[in-house]
Design brief:
globular, Rossmann fold, 11 helices, alpha/beta
């Protein structure tokens, strides 16, 4: 999607608030923070959201503490500043001088790392900015063979394997606490859409792709329900064997 179209489309359709993919993914991340990272609601954690988009995860971070945001898209940061008055918002690339002045209990990079040309540089900065035994939470799209026109339009650099993500992050000095594929139950229809329907529509510059397509109310509820079933497994730290995306929770070692 072209930048202006994407911005208008997402706001007009209230994608971050209503779309099944965002809602179910956010539930999954909330469960992971409580069950894997043992975060307690009402706590005073310092949380940095890198590549935070419209702030679609801010409502979750705020349950656990103070929220800081780094985002280089002015459309997004203008939106954040308007609707999230209690969040510290930095409009810049990461790493940057402002966010680097502090240390954090949790750094989140949700659907961010796949856009990065030099992920090792980003991961090293994450390590430096985390407090002792602080957590790094990452989600990325899975499987190189699922590369499609939507990845190109979205500005992705790569897609990952779970073992590859774990290896890359642990090489920096982190320890993997938990990692899993997700969007497993919808994997087959997602692959069909990504490989066939997207290829047919790739010449349509306004085709939003699977994660952003506007659906009818019934379909939106159905897809949300199916995707959200995965939280039953994730809360028990079960590793899903495949899926459209990968989630990883890593911990910084003590100095």
């Amino acid at each position: 999607m072209e930048a202006d179209f994407a911005h208008d489309y997402i706001l007009e359709n209230k994608i971050p608030e209503k779309h099944w993919w965002f809602r179910a993914r956010n539930n999954l991340i909330y469960i992971v923070l409580k069950k894997v990272s043992s975060f307690i609601e009402g706590g005073n954690k310092d949380i940095l959201d890198v590549g935070s988009g419209y702030g679609q995860l801010f409502s979750i971070w705020q349950k656990f503490g103070n929220v800081y945001s780094v985002e280089n898209n002015k459309h997004y940061t203008d939106y954040q500043k308007k609707y999230y008055k209690n969040v510290v918002v930095w409009s810049s690339e990461f790493p940057d001088k402002d966010s680097s002045k502090y240390t954090y209990d949790l750094i989140c990079m949700c659907d961010f790392l796949e856009h990065v040309q030099d992920p090792d540089k980003i991961l090293r900065q994450d390590y430096e900015l985390l407090k002792n035994k602080g957590f790094l939470l990452i989600t990325v799209p899975a499987y190189k063979w699922l590369w499609s026109y939507f990845d190109v339009r979205s500005g992705h650099v790569k897609r990952y394997l779970r073992k590859e993500l774990i290896s890359n992050v642990e090489e920096i000095g982190f320890k993997c606490i938990y990692s899993t594929y997700f969007m497993t139950f919808l994997f087959i229809p997602a692959v069909i859409i990504r490989k066939f329907i997207n290829s047919i529509k790739k010449k349509n510059n306004e085709f939003p792709g699977l994660e952003f397509a506007s659906n009818g109310r019934f379909l939106n509820k159905l897809l949300y329900y199916i995707f959200n079933l995965e939280t039953l497994f994730i809360r028990r730290k079960i590793v899903m064997p495949f899926g459209l995306s990968i989630l990883g929770v890593f911990q910084r070692s003590s100095d």
